[in-house]
Design brief:
By secondary structure, this protein is an alpha+beta fold. 29% of the residues lie in helices and 31% in strands. The protein has a single domain, classed as Dihydrodipicolinate Reductase, domain 2, CATH 3.30.360.10.
Amino acid sequence: MLYDWGVHLTEYALQLIDDEMVEVFGVAHRGRWNSECSWGEDTNEDEATAVVRFKGGAMFTLRVSQLEAEPPEFAVKVTGTHGCYSFSPHGGYRVVSFQNGERFEANGKEQESEGWRYYQNVADHLVDDAALIITAAWSTRPIHVLDLACRSAAEGRTLPVEIP
């Protein structure tokens, strides 16, 4: 599951947090759905959590679950001392901010996805040698985080981030 939605959500977080990663911690649970699918033991984890700590003190927590009886309304939440932005995979968002001690909240619907632009950029790169927006070097970062989270879960300890 981390390598499904997790890679996209991790990539979003790494675009928002422009800082050096220090360590990654991961936990995972398997076994609930194994007997009910064709792949048995060779399935994704039922639930996984990854926590990334950055040099400046920021943290990114990713939790993907197929075990929750009532999943949270908003799958992604970006928080800070002055407010919070949350969005749902179903297209809704909520912004909460605080100004002069007063709380403000706005809810709405996300704009239509422009994910096609990514694929157009890849096609333009292959055909016309256009510069890639998401480079090969950039795309290794989320995979590195998820690899460390999976290894951390297996080893039962936090792992340092070492960039080769």
